[in-house]
Amino acid sequence: MGKSANSIVITSIFAPTVAVQKFAQLAMHQLVVAGDKKSPQDWESPDTVYLSIDAQEDLGFKLSSKLPYNHYGRKMMAYLYAIRDGAELIIDTDDDNIPYEDWSFPALEGDFLTAPDNLGFVNIYKTFTDKHIWPRGFPLDLITKESSRLRSEQLATASAKVGIWQGLADGDPDVDAIYRLIDNTECFFNDHASVVLGEGTLCPFNSQNTAIRRELFPLLYMPAYVTFRFTDILRGLVAQPIMWTHGYRLGFTKATVVQERNPHDYMRDFESEIPCYLHPNKVIEIVKASISPANSISENLYAAYVGLQQADIVSSQEIELLSLWLEDIAPYAGKQ
């Protein structure tokens, strides 16, 4: 491994941003940036592994033969690089998320404030702010429901094995286009203690400030044949029932980055997010019905996507790409 067994992964079509430069300077972390066809030809940044399109293809992974260009899923080539290089923890982030000086994630195992089991979808943003705000991918019919907010008396300290930590983002956090079209004010979250969700209690999580442990690396798969704004949300929805089945939990921690968001067309975002609005509950039902504790994580991931294909939520192309991902990762992921 390069600097550390902790890899930070970004994909970018811009020259090195402030966020990229700051992540590259972090001790005990290796920054890996996946380029794309729109990326500057002379992209270069100190203390950074940069994977141009040519470099990605030279890695020898099967995934590159079907992975679309000019797509957020190019991140997966950087995941594969980091995994083959010995990463124990992969931190997903973006080139517009600037880390605070105290940027870090909690331990993967220990005692944490924990939400009860089987609450369904909860709006974790409301635990960290009183502002009327919700994460991208949160079911629209629950936005105004008080029952979707975790009350302080519901949280109790318990031991947990956390598979994925989602750190929040200040400034312009990850919200849907509806929020941006009707409000779009900045949000700075409070310093609430980290919260781990119990089995059957879930919340959308993204790829913007997210740490994933080695045992769950198969779940890094980023669907590339769904709409752009559904990509990481679908990944997170699929991951959660699989995590429960294998004894892992999802945790959320305070904002450790501030997002200075790249320009977006909110109406185009809205169109791209339509599957986020229509499918979250159905995705969870399908994944739960498709997986088994007798399977490996990789086997459950494949079974989940087959179920989603049968429901016309993903296409046969997605299954083909996923198969290549699982072949590429098999020598490193093993029978988790």
Give a structural overview.
The protein has about 325 residues and is an alpha/beta fold. The chain has 2 domains: about 1-95; about 105-335, no CATH class. It contains 10 helices and 12 strands. The protein has helices at about 20-25, 55-60, 75-85, 125-130, 175-180, 230-245, 265-280, 280-290, 295-310, 315-335, and strands at about 5-10, 30-35, 50, 90-95, 95-100, 110-115, 120, 155-170, 195, 200, 210-215, 250-260. The strands form 2 sheets. Strands 1, 2, 3, 4, 5, 6, 8, 9, 11 and 12 form a 10-stranded mixed sheet that branches. Helix 1 links the parallel strand 1 (about 5-10) and strand 2 (about 30-35). Helix 9 runs antiparallel to helix 10. It is globular and about 50 Å long.
Write the topology of this structure.
Elements: E1 6-11, H1 18-24, E2 30-34, E3 48-51, H2 53-58, H3 75-84, E4 89-93, E5 97-99, E6 109-114, E7 120-121, H4 125-128, E8 156-171, H5 177-182, E9 195-196, E10 201-202, E11 209-213, H6 231-245, E12 249-259, H7 266-278, H8 280-290, H9 297-310, H10 316-333
Parallel strand pairs: 1-2, 1-4, 2-3, 6-9, 7-10, 8-12
Antiparallel strand pairs: 4-11, 5-12, 6-8, 8-11, 9-12
